[in-house]
Known about the structure:
This protein has 1057 residues and is of the alpha/beta class. Helices cover 41% and strands 17% of the residues. The strands form eleven sheets. It has a seven-stranded parallel sheet, sandwiched between helices. The radius of gyration is 43 Å and the shape is elongated. Residues 23-29, 37-61, 76-134 and 141-151 have low confidence and may be disordered.
Amino acid sequence: MTNLCIRWERIANEILMHFRAQRKLQGEVSLSEAIETDKAGNALYLQDVVGADDTMQEDLEGREDQRLIRRLVGEPLRPGRPPAPDPASGGRRLRHQPQLCLPHRETRSGEAGGGPAGALLSINSKNGGGSPHSCCWFTKSTPGSAGGKRKPMDPRKRLIIIKGKDQTDSVASFRFHDGRCEVVYTSAPNKTYDFQSGNVEIMPLQKKIDPAQVIVTANGQTISGTDELLDFGAYYRIVRSGKKDLSFRRSEVQLRQNCLTDGKNKEAFQYFKETAAAISLVAENGINILSMQYDKIQQVSEDAVLASYLAPQKEVKAPRMPEAIIYPFGLNQSQKLAVERALSSKISIIQGPPGTGKTQTILNIIANVVRSGKTVAVVSNNNSATHNVAEKLEKKNAAFLTAFLDSLANKEKFLEAQTGVYLDMSDWEMQPEERQQLEQEKTALSKELNEMLNAKNRIAEIEQEFLQLKPEQHYFADYYATYRDAPSESLNKLSSQKILALWMEFEQYAEHETRLGLLQKLSIMFRFNRGALKLFLRSPELVIPYLQNQFYFVKKQELEDEKETLNRKLEHYAFDEKMDELTQKSLRLFRAELAARYPWKSGRKRFEKSDFRRDSAAFTNEYPVVLSTTYSIKGTLGIDHIYDYLIVDEASQVDLATGVLAFSCARNIVIVGDLKQLPNVLTENDIRTSDAIWQKYSLDERYRFSTHSLLSSALEIWRDAPVTLLREHYRCHPKIINFCNQKFYHGRLIVMTKDHNEPDVLTMYRTTAGNHARGHLNQRQIDVIQQEVLPRLRQENYQSIGIITPYRDQVAAIRKQLDDAYEVNTVHKFQGREQDAIILTSVDNVITDFVDDPHMLNVAVSRAVHSLAVVTSQDPRNDRTNYGDLTRYIEYNNFEVIRSQVHSVFDMLYQGYAQQRRAYLQKHKRVSEYDSENLMYSVIQEVLSEEAYSAIGCAVHVSLATLVKDYEPLTEEECKYARNPLTHVDFLLFNQMDKQPVLAIEVDGTGFHEVGSKQAERDIKKNSILEKCAVPLLRLRTDGSGEKEKIRDMLKTAPQK
């Protein structure tokens, strides 16, 4: 025991001698600092002497030995106790002898006493602690740490940043001293590292953030699986189970609200998740891929498209539109508008009827997105649309930007096809000055072309008007031929609008049967001409038909003159060459951007399969255009990866469960589709199952799976989003597409193709009466195709001929009979394709709802480029179908004799007349007299805007004289009344396909039409005339109600001519 005391006394003296030798430390010492070496030459540390290691007590025997050890070692270092006298100084106390404050030892589980790990060890000099010139040691001392690696400090309480790097996990202890910081690392406990204090930041924890509430993105990469999110002010620390903690500067981190924390959003998402589990296809291995992807989603960022879909009432931040937009794939006016809206809106919707250049629009959007350094995923319900995009990019040598990753097989194919080299872009490089100059030239050219594009569209509109004017004028000529002794007064230099105004003026004069005063005569001469004044001396029965005939003559001449003027303007400007120049300049700018962006002179990174999920951001930086299906896109790369843009093509065919999942992987979206083409098809079982799930939730009808496609729901949800209709049509002959235009698109399309008076563009073949269909097969129609239709089409030398039928059985029978000489398929298989000539066979004897589906008919007709032949059965019950409308349209445009007691409605004539009539009544302050008619017109237009009545038009104030063709059934008094051009019906509803009247509507004022009045007698005559002409009549009293329902009921039962 005596030897032990001597040893400890010697150690204590060595400690005091070390303090004297280290006066430069200003009385501060570290437990981790080497103070001597042992006999073997190993460093001896202060903590080895005074460390809180329990094994020392275990080596001593008896309580007396323990007491003696504590006195010898502990007393000189006890907090607050003055040091013992120094024998070397004559027994005097040292003025600057340090006071050493020891931490409480950390106890093992179950031991009493002890303080927290990492407690403060402070050796205070006379200057006190905490100042830059004092010493403050922080350490974490734990059992078993002596002689081995120290455990790191608790990263959940403070963060240690050294030279901009988080080294909390590596630091065992540190102290600030004289503008320096000394650090001891756990990996090297025997060595001290010296740093300038400015290079070391100690940050205490400010707050904990609930990771379930936010989406964490660091340097563009979404971080999932976060257990704790610690906010240290300038830094965030992310704690994940089983993984290394991550630290990022505040500027590197984006925290976005998780929209699924909102109860309503979570409910809607859960509905789609449950629907996906019940409805979606199951793979061969029994896995429901869509449901599996839903299960992985715990959070949805507030800036994702899905967040906006679930909460459309919240304001969204729109992307910033590029300063200059390029069009390397060409453009027209509608496409230009669509691209601009797509790049400046978080949500944009593009409605693309057949042949309007949807793919071209998508390609221009892609080019501008990539040029701005962003990423885009392009998806559709099937691969055909995305393959089309890939092919067109390849033609511009831009395929190296794309990755087709819709399936495991395509992913493998992509990986194998990697070459490790870039395309040679030497010819694409451009100096910054040259690029800036080219940018300016392109911008100026784009502005120039804007006016010319309007002119181009106006020419197309004129040709469309010609197309409608030609048959209408043909049928009006038949009507006008019944009049003899027509006026011969000259109306030279009067425009078509002036002639309509003169008609209006004359009609008002004739109705009131007054003489013209001097001022009125002068006014007529001044506003029209002398010949117009002479017409007021003739009878209305001759003047009004004459004015109507003059309208057609002058209108046609005006259109021809306008078209010629615009053509000269375009030729002088060299429109086609300028359009090509704009495309080439845009392409050069696009390529120059790519050459500057990609290190094409060096090797290209080759990705591995694991990179798809592990390094999604790096992958899309290299391949910014990812092609996939709507079904697969969420799982194509990492489950949390967000694309800058998502483009969904053929969106009307995407179901909501699939679409909602796709919404979760993009910040901005462009939805492209057409509600008038084929929709998403659900089975009856899908509908029943999904509706049962729907009943469990309380959601807006706009989210209902069974009643909405992605496109229709998007239009309902995002009502303020820009919707662009691509109007310019480039595929079909004008006569072919004009059926779709009038029937399905309300005449809004601009047909850019030309009519060269080709024969047999439209033909109708009706099989002889009889029940020829057997199930879903009609042999008689197949025989007509083989024996009558095909021989004629072969004579025209069409390069491609397609046969479309609604049933697979008919497809199989036609293929068997005709071999493989022609493309034969169902309507659904033909969407997105075209043929020079199309033969459409309806199969059914009496056309069913399935065959008569307007979406199927629209797609079938619009596949034909130059010729359309329709083969159908001859059953009168088909007259009320969409196929019946197609039949009427073909007959009307082919000038076939239509057996009817009435003329077709002269639509163009009465449209112009209605405009002039409104202007006249407003000018003469007589609008109030016709308020009831104005209100009824609004009601009629509202009814006709419904899908069921899309083919019905409305003419206003139609003269009976222009309506009645056969006067033989009428009495003499009725003939006289009907021939009077001042006798009219208030509204005449007609089928726009053949302009045949469907329903006449009269608005009867309660006083003016009361029984016994003169007007009531006229009403009786009009009723009789219309009945004998087989034109249904609906009289609506101004004091009645339920007008909409009455109009609908009459339209449902009205016979088709």
